[in-house]
Design goal:
The complex is a heterodimer of chains A (about 210) and B (about 200). With about 210 residues, chain A is an alpha+beta fold. Chain A contains five helices and seven strands; from the N terminus they run αβββααββαββα. In chain A, strands 1, 2, 3, 4, 5, 6 and 7 form a seven-stranded antiparallel β-sheet that branches. Chain A starts with 10 loop residues before the first helix and ends with a helix. Chain B has about 200 residues and is an alpha+beta fold. In chain B, strands 1-3-8-9-10 form a five-stranded mixed β-sheet, with no helix packed on it. In chain B, strands 2-5-4-6-7 form a five-stranded mixed β-sheet, covered by helices on one side. Classes of the chains: A alpha+beta (about 210), B alpha+beta (about 200).
Chain lengths: ~210, ~200
């Protein structure tokens, strides 16, 4: 028997592996995109009551950019890529070559640049999980929102919320060496999808 | 006099008659904040509604005002316990936005619209009169209710903080006439980018 996974490895550790797999791939994509090194600094599985979701970025009123995808296929859920506003502005500048500020409402070009950042991250992250586990995870076209963290995050999470249940999220944070860029990626599997995801990760780890 | 801000978190209910208190629900997306006020007492209440119906609830651990159908009567009850009279109550409801617009067809339900409709329906059933509504749209809102005069302010990313309504009497609530209140609070200048 392979020693890839310790006997009785905790499901949370398996989920942590998922986060790490996806994070490595997405971080590489983001570095290429931003034109500067991005360090994958943190991948963590969290189980939270719904009530803590508005504070994931600290202040519930913090202005963030959220790019949200519905995930379908073998695993269903939500995938969220979120950045503090100043980091999102830096990403837009890197992608489009134009400086913009929050004083003006984002135009179509800025919003589509942000959607593109989300697309790249989602396909790297979900693609890494697909490659490792053999499961299919397809992202929907994204929703892009520039707004208060609480409003974006709760609206994204609520469709996944089973009344009375807690929210399971696989969170990845990344930043540059000088913390020039900080963002989060969150994968929220539905309660029904979770066992399938865990089984697939476990068997991939045993075989790998 | 110092202001004390009481944050009303998801699913929570707060009632106060301290004139220095401000009840606040931060960054509402699809959630709805219901503000209620009894001008004769200077008594204010707020709930932060998350979902329309308790029918899906499977736990007793839920917040007292998580669901519109039970949260609204619960708020009225709590205010009546403190002397409020139902026909005197004035309400304002804000929130219920749909902040995520997907390219292509929306696959998720518009929870905001359902929350707004459920709160509205529950208020009608409770026979509480509604003075102001700021519902729907695509932007998150922060809602603040000043206990001193029933003033309701709303803050959004683009428009900063604006006054929505005053639920107290024009010439001041009884609390103010008794001299319990402080000088009117001046709205802070609107923060620009990243106003938080």
């Amino acid at each position: 028997m392979s020693r890839g996974v310790e006997v009785g490895e905790h499901p949370l550790d398996l989920l942590q592996r998922i986060g790490t797999m996806g994070a490595i791939q997405a971080t590489a994509s983001l570095s290429a995109l931003a034109g500067k090194p991005v360090v994958n600094s943190y991948a963590k599985v969290k189980i939270l009551p719904l009530e803590e979701v508005p504070g994931l970025f600290g202040d519930p009123e913090e202005i963030i950019v959220g790019v949200i995808f519905e995930v379908s296929g073998d695993v269903r859920g939500q995938y969220i890529a979120a950045f503090l506003i100043q980091d999102a502005l830096a990403l837009i500048a890197a992608l489009t070559g134009t400086e913009c500020s929050l004083d003006e409402e984002f135009g179509e070009m800025e919003m589509s640049a942000l959607a593109e950042v989300g697309n790249i991250l989602a396909s790297s992250y979900l693609g890494a999980i697909e490659t490792t586990t053999g499961l299919a995870l397809s992202p929907s076209p994204p929703a892009v929102a520039v707004d208060m963290a609480a409003g974006i995050l709760t609206t994204a999470v609520l469709p996944m919320h089973e009344a009375g249940s807690e929210i399971l999220l696989i969170e990845v944070r990344f930043g540059g060496p000088d913390r020039e860029l900080t963002g989060r990626m969150i994968l929220l599997p539905t309660v029904e999808s979770l066992p399938r995801l865990l089984r697939a990760v476990k068997s991939a780890a045993l075989n790998g | 006099m110092d202001e004390r801000v009481i944050t009303v978190n998801m699913g929570q209910l707060e009632v106060s008659r301290q004139p220095g208190d401000v009840l606040a629900a931060l960054g509402l997306g699809s959630c709805v904040a219901l503000c209620a006020y009894d001008p004769a007492l200077g008594l204010a209440g707020m709930i932060h509604v998350v979902l329309p119906s308790s029918a899906i609830s499977r736990s007793k651990e839920e917040g007292p005002a998580k669901f519109a159908d039970v949260g609204v009567p619960h708020l009225v009850e709590e205010m009546e316990k403190q002397g409020a009279i139902r026909r005197r109550l004035r309400a304002a409801m804000l929130g219920g936005a749909n902040v995520l617009s997907y390219a292509g067809e929306a696959r998720t339900l518009d929870i905001g619209a359902r929350n707004a409709a459920a709160v509205q329906e529950a208020l009608e059933a409770q026979r509480v009169s509604v003075c102001a509504t700021e519902l729907g749209g695509k932007v998150s809102r922060t809602v603040r209710l000043w206990v001193a005069d029933g003033r309701v302010m709303m803050k959004t990313l683009r428009e900063g903080q604006v006054r929505v309504t005053v639920l107290g009497d024009e010439n001041g609530s009884r609390a103010r006439k008794r001299g319990l209140t402080h000088t009117p609070h001046r709205t802070r200048p609107t923060a620009r980018a990243g106003g938080g």
